[in-house]
Design a protein that fits this description.
Radius of gyration: 19 Å
Shape: elongated
Number of domains: 1
Oligomer: single chain
Number of helices: 4
Number of strands: 0
Strand content: under 5%
Helix content: over 70%
Length: about 70
């Protein structure tokens, strides 16, 4: 889609259209998605991801992959 729009409209207009599409999809997702699990009372927000990383090997590998993906 990006290469098609760049050829037809140019780079600036293509980025604006892509940003608008992302904005619409994020707006829709904000109202559709719900949390699967209720929050625990009395624990800080950072505690849940730390516990999940300790207990779940698949989540650890996801974190490693994301780290190296952003690192380059």
């Amino acid at each position: 889609m990006f290469s098609f729009l760049v050829d037809k409209l140019g780079f600036g207009s293509t980025l604006q259209i892509m940003a608008f599409i992302c904005l619409i999809l994020l707006f829709i997702a904000t109202f559709i998605l719900r949390s699967r699990k209720s929050r625990t009372v009395g624990r800080p927000d950072w505690f849940e991801p730390v516990r999940a990383a300790r207990e779940n090997a698949a989540y650890r590998w996801l974190l490693v992959g994301v780290f190296f993906g952003f690192w380059g």
